[in-house]
Design goal:
Layout: E1 6-9, E2 12-15, H1 16-25, H2 27-40, E3 45-48, H3 64-70, H4 73-89, E4 95-98, E5 104-112, E6 115-125, H5 132-144, H6 151-158, H7 165-195, H8 199-210, H9 218-225, H10 229-240, H11 244-264, H12 268-284
Antiparallel strand pairs: 1-2, 3-6, 4-5, 5-6
């Protein structure tokens, strides 16, 4: 079984598929996908770094010719090989290639920090009106796969959308800007997840607050948080920046300050200053 590709983050390793799924669920992607497809008539896909299926299969506005190829094992294998090649050649910038059947495809990288986690994919188009040699090449490749270039499959190929080079290039440029927005979003999402307080720390904080006036043992608090003492100490220190005993001491000190202010209507500093002032006056008398 092929290992699931993953990206290292400050909080550990997260599968690229999981990162891309977060983006797919985001309102940013859903809104942009709808507008892009409506404006261009092209399907837009966002796929993880390693995705071993046809990126637009069964999506709205999928090219009918490509859909027919996906139904035949021999032509599907050619499409998947072309898919793998475009991903292999895509680095930090978009990559546009022409498949063996003459259709243009583009991959635009989406990154988390310095790592590529997935690609925006568009294509299944011709960038100029087809000429006889284009049809001949498509027919020859289909013949290699045992598929005659006739009837439905020929009509589907001839119905492929034609988008001139300059217009197609502008679409790719727009997707490059969008990929930058997605990269910023996934970086923010990952950062927020890394900074989120672990459940065991939240439980420990609650327990300490409720029992701060009682004797508190490390074992009791670890048990209340649902973790072993070793694991609790490691996670608690990493999250709060304090050892358990120091944290408890700080909580009790803050509570004492609050109680003092409520009782005397002044801060501890003000209380000490007034106390010292009273002592000096007593000595002077």
């Amino acid at each position: 079984m092929r290992p699931m590709p993953a990206t290292k983050t400050a909080g550990g390793t997260m599968p690229n598929k999981q990162l891309v799924e977060m983006l797919l669920r985001s309102r940013l992607f859903r809104d942009y996908e709808g507008v892009f497809t409506k404006a261009t008539g092209l399907p837009l896909a966002l796929r993880p770094l390693e995705y071993w299926q046809l990126e637009h299969h069964q999506k709205t506005n999928e090219n009918h010719f490509c859909a027919l190829l996906a139904e035949r094992p021999a032509t599907l294998a050619v499409c998947l090989q072309s898919h793998a090649e475009i991903i292999r050649h895509t680095g930090n910038v978009p990559c546009t290639e022409t498949c063996p059947f003459g259709l243009t495809e583009t991959a635009v990288p989406v990154r988390l920090g310095e790592e590529t986690i997935g690609f925006l994919r568009i294509g299944q188009v011709l960038r100029r009106s087809a000429i006889q040699t284009d049809k001949a090449r498509a027919a020859a490749k289909l013949k290699e796969c045992g598929v005659p270039f006739v009837t439905d499959i020929r009509k589907a190929w001839e119905a492929t959308p034609i988008i001139p080079k300059d217009k197609y290039g502008a679409m790719v440029r727009l997707l490059t800007f969008f990929a930058e927005q997605l990269s910023a979003l996934i970086n923010q999402i990952v950062l927020e997840k890394q900074n989120a307080e672990p459940e065991l720390v939240r439980k420990a904080r609650e327990y300490i607050t409720q029992h701060k006036m009682e004797p508190l043992s490390l074992g009791a608090v670890a048990q209340a948080s649902g973790a072993s003492v070793f694991h609790f100490c490691k996670v608690f220190k990493k999250t709060t920046g304090l050892k358990f005993t120091d944290y408890v001491a700080r909580i009790r000190l803050e509570d004492a300050k609050t109680q003092l202010k409520r009782t005397f209507g002044q801060s501890p500093t003000e209380f000490r200053a007034r106390l010292h002032s009273g002592q000096r006056k007593s000595k002077a008398a």
